[in-house]
Amino acid sequence: MEQLQKFIRNVKGSREMEERFMIFEEMLKEERAAGFAKGRAEGVAEGRAKGVAEGRISESKDTLLLFLQNLGTVPKVLSDQIEEQGDLDVLKKWIGLAFKSKSVEEFAKKIK
């Protein structure tokens, strides 16, 4: 009789442990899903910010080159230098210098 009771307790214990394990497993799945969703949202936000920054840099390059082309012929070396510049602050500074320059040559001297 005692062995039977012990066996029943083990079975009940196992079921309780199984139920607890299932609950724990479900909690882990929910945490993983929440972590994935958070990571994805952060990734989207980061990607969007990076895209906006790249767009501003590209627009600044286009504006600068367009303005310089109105002053005269832009040498390939200068055009390449502008295209290779990836710092928005530098490009803004260059745009300011271009507006104050009377020629492409004057601008080129100012940025050296």
UniProtKB/TrEMBL annotation:
It comes from the Bacteria. This is Uncharacterized protein.
